[in-house]
Amino acid sequence: MRASDRRGGGALLWALLVALLLTAIGSVYLVVTQAQAVFALKSTARTEAMSIADSGLNLACRFLFIYREKGTWRWNDILSYNQAFADDRGAIHQEAMRILQNAGRGGWVVRTAPDAPVPPDPTAPTTSPPVIFGVHSLLNRGAWFILVRNNPEDPGGPVTDTDGLLHVTVFASHLDNIQVIVEASVCYRPSRLEPEAALMSRGGLSIVGNPVITAVAGSSDPANVLVDGNVAINGDPVIEGSVSATGTVDLRGSPNVRDGIREGIAPPPPFDVDPERYRSLAEAILHSDGTVADRDGRLLGVGDWEGFRFVGGSWRSEGAGAPPPPGVIYCETDLNLSRGTAFNNTFIVAGSVQVQGPGFGGAAVSSALGNISILSGGDIRVRGRVEFRGYVVAREQIDVDGTVLLRESGLLALNRSDEASLVRGVAGAAVKISGNVRIEYRPRLGTFVDSDTHSLRVVFLRKK
Known about the structure:
The protein is of the alpha/beta class. Helices cover 19% and strands 38% of the residues.
């Protein structure tokens, strides 16, 4: 064989080897590119599925917040309803894929519990189950399925919430056969009332005489007066803060208002209290039938208990003698406290409260719980020499006259109605104070009363 033939054959061989090498590199690149594309698609699908799950969790939290306090469909009902569904991730995903493949995108696909009514609009709570729990809800190229379970450590069991803590599981399925699960623990906590002023009235204020409204010794905070309505001051009161009113402020005499007067302010948000809500806090309950029982229903007395007597359909504590045991007392009727003794009690009263201090020695009511001495569902009327330690709160109106001292506390009248007659028509104001009343206000003092600013928080979150 000639040398030129050998050189030509070698070049051809090298060309074939290079071509094979390039083909192999191209094939590898193609496989890698395809794998990257598949991975990218899977990653995108998983991201979309995770977004669907997050959307489901956000909606679940919104619904749980709505149904916690509104309507008749409450958390216990939701827990009972969810018992009809098993948290079988495989079965849930399989059904979701079937629905997605058959229905495509958009709309609701509702699967209710056996014999359950048609789910309602979430913005109009009724006795029917919320539309989002136990159903496959479609979103884009996926669907979520939400289950709610009670906190397993709740003593109320699987369908009775007692601690405000629920577990929410969101199963999100994507059309590309991907499932992600988001587990969350959500905690409901009502905010507690912290009165922002030493004296708050939701329906006008009348001050007559020489009351003093100040902060506790050593505090640099102002002792403000906040009124939703008009203010009439006639006398020489000392207010070591401001007087703010949605209406007008009429000054007569020589009042000393340290931080000035503001008229025409924006009204504060509406607020209400229901003494019945706090019945469970009581160590003793004075019933409207004349019996007294503890919170578990054990009978403590009939018509007479620890200086309280049932007279004419209401409860009274008069005269002298030892005070009742310290603690919270709930009263279903009006309550009259005209006893020259020191009560270490918080009184939660469905009706109105009259406190009458004797001429010598006086009476005292010190809070046993949550910085409130008296919480009344009606009016509160105070006369004589009386000392309070803890807020005096009335759902209706308050009238205070005499040598009255409120230590580390204040007055709050909500003026939600005018059904009680004890202080009805007090100079057209929800609060009237006169005489030698002294309020020593402690700012940021929390109470056991729920405010209207509730919250639902996610306290645990896991995604998988």
